[in-house]
Amino acid sequence: MNEVEAYINEFEGEQKSIMLFFHNWFTRELNLISKIRYNIPFYYQKSWIYYLNPIKPDRVELAFLRGNELSNEQGLLEVKDRKQVYGITFHKISDVPVELIDEIIQEALLLDQVKPYSIRKKK
Fold this sequence. Notes:
By secondary structure, this protein is α+β, with helices and mostly antiparallel strands. The protein is 33% helix and 24% strand. The chain has one domain (3-40, 52-112). The protein has a five-stranded antiparallel β-sheet.
């Protein structure tokens, strides 16, 4: 068991189910690298693409680090007073619209391949 799986196993109920679902999808089907950063699971290809943020008491946010650069044609991504990170919050595993989420994920993966993230430092 890796560090992300150990982290996810500390949760219960729907939070655990949602995080395990996404973790398995990202690591097994998409072959992304998972690491714990800032005490939550992050998923990488060339750079950070998204993370899973457990929200007390029973929700999980799938947050896209470059959400501001995604089309959001599906209308699912929420800004939440952030400039760059956009996310989708889930209460139950049955609430996950897999096909729509897959479209967003594929766009985020393509963006990472075509235009890798670079930190813009202030002068």
